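Worked example

This section walks through a single chain of length 87. The input is the sequence exactly as stored; nothing has been trimmed or padded.
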Amino acid sequence: MILDDLFDIAQADALEVIKIKEDRDFLISQRQKGRPGSMLGIDLKIINKEKRAEERLKIIEERRKRTYEESEIHGQENNYITVNIMY
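Given that input, the structure is written out below as tokens.
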């Protein structure tokens, strides 16, 4: 695709300027046809992982809330029964 070739916005001497090998390798792979240096897949994996973690936390919080509410109900029932026994 022509647009892939148009948008190389790195400096002309970027490979000489970049000191970190991983960054240099990324730039080289980004300049190849088909954009194998794209980070889209990695970003999507992280987003999905964070979303699953958030859903798990929500489920845990709902369980805690439900357990607390049930313990409140059972605690009130026990007090009521105790009061009835005393009369």
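What to look for: DSSP finds four helices and no strands in the chain.
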